[in-house]
Structure formats: C-alpha cells, structure tokens
Amino acid sequence: MPDTPTNTRTTPAGHALQFARGFAMGAADIVPGVSGGTVALVLGIYDRLIRNIRTGAHALKELLTGDLAGFGKTLRKIEWVWLITLLAGILVAVAALSSLIETLLNDHPQTMAGLFFGLVVGTIWIAYRLLDRVDAVTIGIIAVTAVALFLLLGLREDTEVAEGTLEVVTQPLWIFFLAGAIAICAMILPGISGSFILVMLGMYSEVLGAVNDRDILTLLVFVLGCVTGLAFFSTLLNWLLENYRNWVIAAMIGLMIGSMRVLWPWPGGTFTTSLGAPADPIVLPIVLAVAGAVVVIVVERVSSRVGEPHSA
After folding, report:
1. What is the DSSP letter of 3?
2. How crowded is residue 107: how many other Cβ atoms within 10 Å of its Cβ?
3. Are 273 and 153 in contact (CB under 8 A)?
C-alpha cells in the first residue's frame, strides 16, 4: 500500500464523517469483547488507520536514531487532520457514553449483549466478504484463531474486576510496560478490547491505582509500553496486510468469532464468559441481535458509497 499524502483537502462534511467514525470506535472500545478495530473494519478505514500508525512508528524510529531530516519528511506523510479528527471522535465518545453504556449494561445485561452480539455477527459477514479466496488454509486460520481465543477467554469467568478490589500499584515497572504493550495491540485488532486484556492480565486495578495515586512514573512507563507495542505491532500488521492480506482477514474473522463468547447474552451478558441456555429475557436480545447485524451491514454499504479517497 502506498504512502498517503497529507495535502488532501477534506470538506467540513468529510471532517464530520471522520469524527462520527471515531465516535463509533470510541463507543465500541467501552464494551468488553468489542474493539475500535472492529468498527474501523466495518467502516472501511482499517487499512488507512494501520498505515498511518505505521508511518508514525517509522517517524519515531528515525527520531530515536537521530535522523532528523528523515523524521521531518516522514511526519509530513501522516494524515494529521484525518487522525486528529478520528481521535477527537474517540475521546468524545468515551467521555460522553461511558456512564450511559455502563448503566445499560448493568440494568439490561442480556439485552445489550444481544445487540453487541448482532453487531459482531454483521461485522464477521462483512469481513468474510473481504476475503479474496476461501480455501483450506483460510478456513484453518479462522478455526484455529477462533478456538484459541474462545478457550483463552474461558480462562477467566468474569470480564470485570471484582467489587471491592483495591486499586493500588503492587507490580514492578516492567510489568506495566509489558501490560501496556499487550493491551494496545488488542485495541487495534477486531475482536477484543484492551481493557478486557488488562483485566485478564490482572493489571486493570493496578493501572487504575496508578491513575488514582497520580503515580506519574508508573503511568509514563505504561504509556511507553503502549507506544512501543503500537509501533512494533502496527509495523508488523501493515506488512502482513500488504503481503498476506487474506490470511490476516481470516485471523481477524477468527478473533471476532472467538470473542463472541463474551457477547453471548446468557446467563449474565458481557459481565461473564460463562455460557448458558437462553432464558428470560429471550425475545428482545434476539430481536436486537438481528437489528444490530442489519445496521452494521447497512452502515458498511453506506460507508463504501461515501468512499475513502486514499484507503487503497
């Protein structure tokens, strides 16, 4: 995929559309089992997002090695307006919707899980249509990835930190570095949220403890881990998309299928990875699941018509 120029003019309507895309990504990141990467894939901006992140990682490498001329040149290749508008949408969504979605998940866990289940089903269908070919290798990658994540998620029954857990820093700095590097990778992959990864690693309350205590050094190490993980992973992912795109899409489909363990509505919605037979409520979660799948497919069709001028 060629580098994207930064001097592309974007209309106010284009900025508004990009903000809306970021808003949708931010809303998805709040939900366990759903990631902003899932939304980016639906909206047709996934390749473009990874390409820009990879370009930023390359610029950081040039800065660290003292290549200031190359650093400046690479920075100009990043679509800053596009990225900043997307980031603004993500941040606004997190700030505005966190409380609302948390309330809905607490009050109507099965119903909301049904909706999110349908959204992911629709995304899987869209991703399947992106495959250039469906052969034995492709099916194998989907199956292995799905089963691996399904079993991995089953290692922990709850998706949130237990009530009453102390939010304190007890781990050494290098653990925060690794946690940041791993969690940020999950955030840009469809299928699982970075916050859930922190829960599984036992680091969610630790990070909150660092925030509450204003432990600047620990937070800086965590952020450094995020930046390092994002730099390495985005470069690898961009290379894989360029050279093994079909296999990457197949792996993403597998991740989304495996993540549906968290989104199965019964018995407790997204708060548990336990699986149970459908029980009251049944009708509304199923109706919302169907509606969610339809909405995702319609949004993808509309987004494809709007088009991404440099997404190829």
Report:
1. P
2. 9
3. yes
Q: Which two tokens stand for residue 34?
A: 């759903």
Report d(CA 258, CA 151) in Å as an integer.
8
For the chain, the structural domain boundaries read 12-306
Tokens of 1: 């995929």
Residue type, 90: I
For tokens 């759903």, the residue is 34
All residues at 6 or more sequence positions from 7 whose CB lies less than 8 Å from its CB, including other chains: none
Q: Give the orientation angle of helix 12-29 with respect to helix 80-107, to 10 degrees.
A: 40
**The pair of three-digit structure tokens given for residue 226, joined into one six-digit string:** 């995020």
Q: What is the pLDDT of residues 158-216, one digit of tens each?
A: 766 666 556 677 788 899 999 888 888 877 777 666 777 777 777 877 887 787 778 88
302, amino acid identity:
V
* Mean pLDDT in residue range 129-148: 92
Which residues are CB-contacts of 80 (< 8 A; sequence separation ≥ 6)?
6
Alpha-carbon gap, residue 45 to 22, rounded angstroms: 10
Could you give the 3-state DSSP secondary structure of residue 281? coil
Q: Report how far apart, in Å, the C-alpha atoms of 187 and of each of 104, 170, 177, 180 are.
A: 22, 24, 16, 11
Question: Please, what is the Cα angle at 72 between 67 and 77, to 5 degrees?
Answer: 125
H runs (alpha helix) in 65-201: 68-75, 80-107, 109-129, 136-153, 173-187, 194-201
DSSP secondary structure string for all residues of 68-84: HHHHHHHHTTS-HHHHH
